[in-house]
Protein 1
Amino acid sequence: MKNLLLSHDATFKDAIQLLDTNGNGFLAVVDEANVLIGILTDGDIRRAILDNKTDLLDIINKKPATMPEGSCSGNIRNQLKKSHKKHMPIVNDKGILKDVITLNQYEFNLKPNWVVIMAGGLGSRLGQLTKDIPKPMLQVGGKPILQRIIELFVSHGFTKFMLSVNYKSEIIKDFFADGKELGIEIKYLEETKRLGTGGALSLIDIQLDEPFFVTNGDIITSIDYEEMLS
C-alpha cells in the first residue's frame, strides 16, 4: 500500500510523480495520523491541469466510497465491480486508512444465479434464544448466521439473494436492507403466514432463467457453492 499513499501536505508535482511510479492511477491522501482525507486519480490530475489548479486540497475527492475494516473480501470485490471502480479504501471506525484493495486482487465473474434463503421460521426449539430475534440472526463468532451464509455465497461470486421472511422479519430487513452496502442485491419474500419451503418459493414473482440455490437460514457450512453449481 506504500506507493498508494500521499501526504496531505505533498505538492502537485509529488502527486504526479507518485502516480507515475505506482502505475495504478490512484492515490489515497492521508494526514499525519493516517486518517483518510480523500483520494486522487489520474482523472483528477487531468481535470486540474485543464482548470489550472495545483492545490491538492482543491483537487482531491474528499468524499470517496470506502468500506469498513473487517469487510468480507467478497463484499469488497462485488462493490468494486458494481460501482465500476478499481480501488477501495478500507478504514476503521476512526477514519484511519487500513488498506487499499484493488480490483485486480479479486478479479472474477459475478454469477447470474439467485440464492433463496429460508429465514422465516420461529426457531422455537431454541427457547429463550429466539424469543426476541429470528434464529438466522443469532450470532456465531460475532456475526449473524444469515450474514455468514450470505458472505460465503458472495465469496464464490453470487450477489443476488431472496430472503424468505416471516417471524420478526423487521430485524432481518433492518440489518440487510436492500444489500447495497454489501455490494449485493436482496429481495424479500414476505410470508404473511408460514408456508414452508415450497410455499415460500411460490412467492417468487420474477422469471428465473438460471439454476438457483435454496438453503435454510440456519446452516453454516464450508461448501464451495461455485463448484456445486458447476
Protein 2
Amino acid sequence: MTDVKKKKVIILEKTPMSEQDPEVRSHNFEEVPLGYTEEEAIAEAKRCLQCKKPKCIEHCPVNIKIPEFIALIAEGDFAGAASKVKEDNALPAICGRVCPQEDQCEGVCVLSKKGDPVSVGNLERFVADWERRHDAVVYPEVKPSNGKKVGIVGSGPAGLTVAGELVKEGFDVTIFEALHESGGVLVYGIPEFRLPKEIVKKEINYLEKLGVKIERNFVVGKTATLDELFDEGFDALFVGTGAGLPVFMRIPGENAIGVYSANEYLTRSNLMKAFEEDATTPVIRGKRVVTIGGGNVAMDSARSALRLGAKESIIVYRRSEKEMPARNAEIHHAKEEGVQFHLLCNPLEVLSDEKGFVRGLRNIKMELGEPDDSGRRRPVPIVGSDYEIECDVVIVAIGNKPNPLIQESQPDIQTTRWGTIEADEEDGRTSKKFVYAGGDIVTGAATVILAMGAGKSAAKSIQTDLLGED
C-alpha cells in the first residue's frame, strides 16, 4: 500500500488575542492585550508554512530565526522556543509588544498574500512571558574574559542590545545611564498599558545576571566625557543616547500653562507615576485634551490622557489617516477607547485665558497636495477654514531630536545638520576611533527594533576592531 502524504491545511485567519474591554481599560494603566494561552500559541504556530527561503528572517532587523522558534512552539517546546529567540534577541518580551512587525517580518509572510500573516510578534511575546512566568529562564554560556572593557552610553534598546551581545563574548561591559532607572525610552516613553515596566526590569535584570554592569545617574558629557572614560581604561565606547529632546511647532501661545511636550507628559506619567494621587511630579489632568501629531507617541499621549481623567481626548493631525505613521493597532486601540480624530487639520495658535492657562487651539483645515520628500502627500492649507477647539491641555507630539550634550562635550565626533551623530549604518563606526553609535542618536526618532538592529551591528564591529575577529 502506497503512503499518501497528508496535505497541510492552511488556516488563513490568525488566532486572535484577548484584550481588556475598551470601556474598562481606558480608565486603567494595565496592559491592553492579555496574551496567548498555550493552546492559542500552538494553534497560531501551526499556521506557519515553514518556508524553505523565509523572508521573515531577512526583514527582521536582528535576524531572529523565526520559523525555527515557531516550529518549537508548534511542538509544545516553549522553553526551547524562548532559548531560540534569545540567540538573536536579548529583549523578546519587549519586541513582542512594541515592534512594528506588520512592516517587517509579518509584512513579507507568504500567508499574507491570501489571508493574515503569522502573528510573529504575539508568538515572540508568548514564549518570553511563558519563560518568565514558569521561572524557566536559561542563561547562555558566557565566554571567559577577553580583557577588553566597553562602555555604553544610554540604556535604551540600542545600548541594551550592544551590552547583551558583547557580554556573552567575554567583554567587561558597563552601561552609563543618565536617569535613575534603566531602560531609556522603554521606561520613560512607552506607557504601562503598552509595555509594563516590570517586564522591562526583568529583561534588564537578565542582562545584569549575564554580567552587564549599570551605573545610573551618570550623565556622560557632564559626569565624565568620552575622553575621560577612555582614560579610565575603556577600550571602546558605544553612544546610544536616543532622541529625547522635544520639538515644538513654534506657533503663538505655545508657552501657555497646560502645554506639554509629549516627552514631558509621558515621562511624568510613565516614570514619575503622575497617575498616582500623591504623585510628586503631577501633570494637569485636563478635561478636554488635544494631542498634536499622528505617530505612536501621539497615540500614547492621547490614550494616557483618558487614563488620567480626561472626558475627551482629541488627536489633531495635518494629514489623513492613511499617512499616519502610527501602527495600525495603536490607531485602532485609540479609536476603541474613544479618542477623537481631527484629520487634515493643522494648529495655528494655542489660545489662553487672562491667567495664562490653555483655553483652546485655533486650527486650519488642510487638503493633500503632491508628495513631499517623505513620499507622503504634502498638506496644503485651505484659506478661510480656521476653527477653534476648546481644550485645557495641549500635548505636542510632532517628534524629537537628539540632546546635543555628547556632541558639545566631544567636538571631534562628526554630526549632521539635524544634530544626529554621523555613523556608518552597517557597522556603527563614527569619526572618532573606537567610538560607535546607533539608534535614534544616529537615525533620528525611529523604532525600538531598528535601534536594536543598529546595536547588534555595532557590537560586531566592536568585537572585530578590539579582537580582530568577527
Protein 3
Amino acid sequence: MTFPDHATVGNTGGGQRILARPDGATIAYHRLEGASPGIVFLGGYRSDMAGTKALFLDDYCRRRGRAYLRFDYFAHGASSGDFALGTIGRWRDDAIAVIDSLTEGPQILVGSSMGGWIMLLAALARPARIAGLVGIAAAPDFTRELLPVRLSPEQRRELDERGAIVLPSDYDPAGYPYTKALVEDGNRHLLLGAPIPIEVPVRLLHGLADASVPWQLSLRLAERLTGRDVALTLVKDGDHRLSTPADLARLAQTLDALCATAAAVRGRG
C-alpha cells in the first residue's frame, strides 16, 4: 500500500508524520499500513491522538494487521494552529484531507464525542470511501444542542461581546475555551434537524452515566440516519469516555463485526 509522497513534510520521530495543508498549516498523524477496511480515529474536542482510545485502536489494528490512521485536528495536539481559529468546518476539512491523502480503499470511521459529528460530516462528503461508522458518545450539533443550555445569561453575554469564553472541564483544570466563531460555524453544519443520508452500517456506543453528552443525543442520531443497519448500545454506568477495559473490549468486538461485514460486502462485489 502506497500513499502520495507530496502530502507529507517529513517525519518528526516516533513514527509521527506531518501532512501539509494548502494554507501552510500542518496536521500531525500516525499511520499503520495493513488490511482493508482501514480504521480512522476522530478524536473529541481538545483531545489528541495520544488518548486512551486512539492508542487502544493502534494496538488493536497492529494485532490484526489492519490499516489505521490517527491524527490531530488543526490546533490540537501536535498539529499547528491557533485554537481560537478552530471550527467544525475546519476540523471536518482536516478529516477529509487525511482520508483523501493518507488512506486507500474503504474506511471505518470511529468518532469520539465531537469526533462523532466530524465522522458524520466526513462520511457525507466521501460516501464512496466509507464502509462503516462507530460513534462513541457522539456529539453532533453540540454547538446548538449542548453548549447554549449550559451557559448562564452572563456567560452568553460574555461570549457574544468578547467572542470567547472559558468553561470548567472535568478533563482540564484550565477549562475549555469556546468561541463565537465556533458556535456560528457549527450552526452551519447541523445535522439532526433533517434525515441524514448515510447508508453504511453505523454503531453507536453511549454511556447512561455520561455527564457531558446525554445518551438521548445518540438515540436522536440513530433515528435521523436513513440507513437500515443502525444499532445503539447503551452502557449502564458508562461515562463519557467509555475507556475502561470492558468499554474497550466492547469497541473491539464492534469493530471486528463491522470489518467482517465490510469484507463480506466486498466479497459479494
Protein 4
Amino acid sequence: MKGEPGGYDHNYVLSREAGKLKLAARVLDPASGHQMEVWTTEPGVQFYSGNFLDGTITGKRGVVYGKHSGFCLETQHFPDSVNHPDFPSVILRPGEVYRTETIYKFSAK
C-alpha cells in the first residue's frame, strides 16, 4: 500500500554507564571492507532505514535514492522522555550545562 514506510525507525536503548563514551553501533560492508562505528555518551540510538526515500532524490554520479537505499544512526535520548519519569531526563534547568559526545569513525580494511 502506498504511503506505508516499512523498514525501521526505532530507538534502541544502549546498555552503558550514564555519560560514558561507549560503542553504540558497528556497521560493516563485507564486500568492500568499509566499516563505520558510532561511539556516544547518549543513552539511545535511533536507527532509520530510509523508509520514505522514493527515488526523487539523486546523489553523486547520478545515483537515485530509492526506498531503503540509505540509513541513519542518530544518537539521542529516548523519544517522549519528558513524559516518562523512569527515562533519562531531557529537562535542562537554568544554569545547568548539557554536554554530549558522539563520534562517527570510518575505516576501510
